[in-house]
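Journal club prep, notes for RB
We'll compare a predicted complex against what the paper describes. Inputs for the adenosine-5'-triphosphate case:
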Amino acid sequence: TSRETPTTATSEGPAASAAQNQSAGPGCARSKTGYPQIDLKGAVVGFSQSEKEANPFRTAETQSIRDEAAKRGAELLYTNAQSDLNKQISDIKSLIDRGAKLLIVAPLNSDGLQPAFDAAKAKQVPVVTIDRKVSSQPCTDYLTFIGSDFVEQGKRAAQQMIKATGGTGKIAILLGASGNNVTVDRTKGFKDGIAGTPGLTVVAEQTGEFDRSKGQAVMEQLIQSNPDITAVYAENDEMGVGAVTALKAAGKQPGKDVKIVSVDGTRNAVQLLVDGSYTGVVESNPRFGPLAFDTLEKFGKGDEIPNTIVISDDEYDSTNAAQKLANAY
Amino acid sequence: MTQTTQAPTKTAVGSAAARTRWLQDNGVYVAVGVLLLFNALFTANFLTLGNFTTQLVQAAPVLIVALGMALVIGTEGVDLSVGAVMALAAAIIPLYLGAGPLVAITMALVVGLLAGAFNGFLVARVGIQPIVATLALLVGGRGLALVIADGQLVQLHDETFLALGTGDVAGIPVSVLIAGLLALVIAGLTNRTTFGRQLVAIGGNRKAATLAGLPVNRVLIGVYAITGVLAAIAGVLATSRLAASDPADMGLLMELSAITAVVVGGTPLTGGKVRVLGTVFGVILMQLVRATLIKHNLPDSIAQMIQAAIIIAAVYVARERR
Amino acid sequence: MTATLTKATPTMAARTKVLQRQGAAVALVLMVAVSWLVFPRFGSLDNLRDLALQGSFLAVIAIGMTFVIITGGIDLSVGSVYALGGVLAAWGSQYGFLVALALPLVVCGLIGLINGLLIARTNMAPFIVTLASLLFARGLLLVITDEGANTYQIPADSAFVELGRGTVFGFGYPIFVAAVLAVLGGMVLNRTNFGQNVFATGGAEQSAVLLGVPVAKTKVLVYTMSGTLAGLAGALTAAYLQSGVTVIGVGLELDAIAVVVIGGTLLTGGMGTVLGTVIGVGLIKVIQNVINQIGTLDSNYQSVVSGVFLLIVVVLQRILRR
Amino acid sequence: MPTEIPSSPVIEVAGVTKTFAGVQALRDVDFTLQRGEIHALVGENGAGKSTLIKVLTGIHTPDAGRITRDGHISTIYQEVNLVPLMSVSANLFLGREPRNRFGLIDRARRDADAAELLRGYGITADVSSPLGTLAVGEQQMVALARAVAAEADVVIMDEPTSSLEPREVETLLGVVQKLHEEGIAIIYVSHRMDELYRICDTVTVLRDGVNVHSGPLKELPRIELVSLMLGRSVKEIENHGTTAFGEDHHADAEPVLEATGLTSKPRINGVSVAIRPGEVVGLAGLLGSGRTETAKAIIGALPIDGGTVLVAGTPVPRTVKAATRAGISMLAEDRKTEGIIPNLSVRENIVLAALPRLSRFGVTSRSKQDRIVDTFIKRLRIKVSSPEQKVAELSGGNQQKVLLARWLCTEPRILLLDEPTRGIDVGAKAEVQALIDELAREGLAVLLISSELDELLDGADRLVVLRDGSVAGELEGDQLTREHVLKAIAAEVTDDSDHASTH
Ligand SMILES: Nc1ncnc2c1ncn2[C@@H]1O[C@H](COP(=O)(O)OP(=O)(O)OP(=O)(O)O)[C@@H](O)[C@H]1O
Ligand SMILES: Nc1ncnc2c1ncn2[C@@H]1O[C@H](COP(=O)(O)OP(=O)(O)OP(=O)(O)O)[C@@H](O)[C@H]1O
Ligand SMILES: [Mg+2]
Ligand SMILES: [Mg+2]
């Protein structure tokens, strides 16, 4: 599949070359929903962001949506739920109230947005969800999901890990926040991915809560009690970067003595990769803008839209990091 | 309706009482001892210098914050804003690092001082209850830090500044040294100075302290200001150790960790008493608990429940009897 | 003799009492009036319905918190217990409406009961006991959901969902549940012996003991109540969201405490009203709504604005109270 | 007074012992309360009276011994033990509120009943206002009303009159008489001999936790009772004589303290007081007449609407700190909430206000503290196991002495004493009074507030009488008689002079 062949960088970044081949189930057309036709130009589009733009992923995501809206001449309404699920429901309702005819939602959580979708349905407002898949019904509750496959990300990280370690090693996993389905999927993908490699064993899995300093603190503990750890899988870059600091402080050479693979594709992590202190980064592509607006436009034209649109995630390793550094966010 | 109360026979009542009283005063030291013993026996590679250094380095910022918190709690107050102040300090650093680490650190401490003094002003002069007064800064302070930093994590490269987090003096990490020194200073402050004795008197009975002519407002504002500065110091050290200014996550939930450590260390939340050594050991105890849970690779769910149990057990032993 | 004095005082006292009691209400009326004028969509029926619904979950928790705070205590566990309640309700919904409703009430009530027993029987500080159960409830939630991997869904057609999603004149059922509880809560507080015991316990615990108030029993009851209500709020939320979301409720305890205090209840205990709490909920939700109405506000500024608002409200209240 | 003494005990205590962290408060105490009798319980401060009462009512569990109770006990504890934030009526009926037919509290009836009940005790305050807004004496009356209304077989009163002024004492004694006629047994604790001899049938004397005497009171001469309490021979006490409290002091001409036109609405209205060095000025008045307020206004603890305070001719800023620095000290009336810092040791409580003086560059000197503390513990005969004992563990009277010591060690020029001998035993009282004299002789200006008229008459060189927050008159020299004062206090209470003449 396209996964194995990393997308070559273009000036617009990987999002421009998004693959839509992963559509599952029957498509969804406007005729089926009975929603009105809306011209993107001059339309009011609402975007509900889930968390503060305090990490690079969210910053890049919001920026991408803003840029694309400006490019297409749509008026963008924006809300931020500040990690509060109930607030996101209110946000979405208020976006509709303020006249949004099309919605892009970055869900805080896979579950729990049903009341917001119901409100959108009642006003015949199509909803595109990005980056996190929700458990509601596509086409009826929301139009489609555009995002990465987190399980797949985990699997790809596992493949990088197998390649880098040569199939033997003791792995510590720095888990994301507990109760978060990104954590669950990236763990599952990774464990499935290394299942066929008996030389790789997971000796510790502890949560670093997607946070650099927590990742660092946990790594410091683990490297003390398990000095024989040879590989670290961090479920986001921030924890991976924290682990690098911890390993250096413990006298290890990250990237060499201890392989580090993480998911996200932030500039900090890729830079470390360039510097040789990192092993691999699987991208989680935040540039949803072009794809989201394309989808809304197609839907408006009456085309059939697949239930799931997978955005292509790039991949960085020691061979390509330097040349692709500009792509990292 | 005739009721007769027969007192319990008075054998060994005295010695049992003495024993519980001893445990009450020394429970936290015993707990640290027990945990050390457990780890020595059951945790791989525990008895290494590197490991102890790690524990101390990780505990240092919490301890610095907890020292301030102990003072505030001594006045029958509480400061929920310490985590936010750490974030503010973190956000300030990169702004001034260009002018040299000393300037950056000074600015961060000044911001901590101002934030603390503001809390103190609200509590002492306006008369708002400490929890609510500092809650406002907890909510707003981190936001302000993010505004200052434009929401971004900033990677730091200034060697001198980073040395604070990685360097050592005679084998003792700088941050641990600073934390230790501050503990001594705060211990001296509470036990040997007028300010310290006035502080506990205000916590013990504010009305009486006022009538005794104590400078109540000045002491309260001073205590919160000190706490602000200490939180800022902790923020600076944590930032240098992280090699990045991360206002979004810096000091998150630090207020709860600090309060827990102080209370576990035997300082009652009802004020009128400050135990500095107890606080140091409270911090160490919680650090060891976390380390033990991680080293034994327990899932988050179980780890949280065990932490809950240990907090209860420690506080139960140290509780004031009626 | 004292006649002239005591005759003069009641009218004065009555007038200040009115102002004190209505402080939060005055602020709320002002906020609503201004918002209505400035933001055209604020007054839309849809917006008001949503505001009331969002407020109802918090209100249910805050009513329990009001009782706890009046006894001079605090309950930090409500946020976690709320999330746990939701998960339990969602899990229980597969066995029908009754289980979905009863399970969270019983389990969360039990956690509250344990809080109460530990606080009342062992003289441990409520802050620290409930801080531990905050951790415990989260841990339990993670155990039930396989470290958060499972989110239990509630079938859209089940009667339980109706409890959260059903409406009368467009106003959701949870609003009515909260309203009924508020009326009941006010009645219990002011018109029953238990309510009087709650006031006495918080007003002067030692005296209350000497007056024959069952202080321990009262404490156990209020924490049980608080746990149960947090569980109920969680269940209502689960019904509304049609699933047992695991990531909710973090930091909710601070919101609950803030609204109770804004509503004029003394954190030191002995004084407070349920009506004030309801007004406090209204204020906080209106503030959040207004921030949303502004629309263009940078997400980092939002918490700064919340913090400033909170500060203004408590300072205003404090000034009115003088 | 007592008509018949039926001999079935309502309370019987045998061999009770109670120890608190090192202090043996009660030692093998036997005690019997007969049905219908008024039983005086006396002893020095810290003798164990309050502890015995708490053991009787089940607040404390004894370490050893047996207690048999037959009937319902209702108690007024030494410190007012009501809930200040709750309304007066809620306090009165807490636990037995009148209900309506839905089982809910009938608030209207509760207020009406409360007002009715309190009128019988001469209190006309608004029953729906918080109890804390009442004067301490009024609160004490509410506690009394509550205890009496509980329909008990035994009523225990631990120093009920310590914060009452003469008129209310009469009301209280009247209530005691009424209870007695109804056949209710009473345990009465007081340091005021007159009261004891007026109403009590029997007496139990505790000394250092030991019951040293139980028997009829009337047959026991006062001097012998005192000797039992103090553990000194009658002769020794006779030699010592009564205190010389109230001898004339040599006062300078210029007042050191001049407070003029102090106004704090609605409590005080243009009160002026001047005190010369070496002079003891008494402040007399009814409960709520504004004596405490006047003292608080002088020291800056009460926001005022008008008035000035001059010390040696210089105006003093309106803060307690400034007043303290200028040399004014005040012993507060309510030692529990405004006096002691319960968690701190006796030493720390004593040196608290003087701390800056005992420090260099903000660092405290322990040896200086110990020296001062030792001096005062000896001089005031404070009963402590060690200076490091928590002050909360002391008996009420000893706490009062600690507070006195706190003020004396600041070496003030002006001392405001609000009820300085409240709750202090006979021995200590004489000492405190002697101390006041001595201080005045040393040149201190003293403002003395007391509910005990005799104390004022004996101790003060001059009396300022307050009525409804204003100065109603000043008495000096020959005018310092009971009759004159009562007349000045309020016209309506002159008939109290009848009681005065009874002893
Ligand atoms: N809770 C306590 N802890 C420690 N010691 C106590 C406690 N309560 C009382 N004591 C001690 O027991 C002794 C008796 O005290 P108690 O209060 O019974 O005296 P009292 O006779 O009522 O004195 P007063 O006339 O001053 O009220 C005192 O030495 C006191 O210090
Ligand atoms: N009607 C009232 N309203 C509010 N507060 C009152 C009232 N009466 C008394 N108080 C409070 O009670 C305390 C004592 O009252 P006040 O100063 O009037 O009495 P006093 O003249 O000093 O007599 P005493 O010392 O015998 O109580 C004061 O601190 C005052 O605030
Ligand atoms: Mg006593
Ligand atoms: Mg007074």
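Talking point for the session: The first strand of chain A starts at residue 44 and ends at 49.
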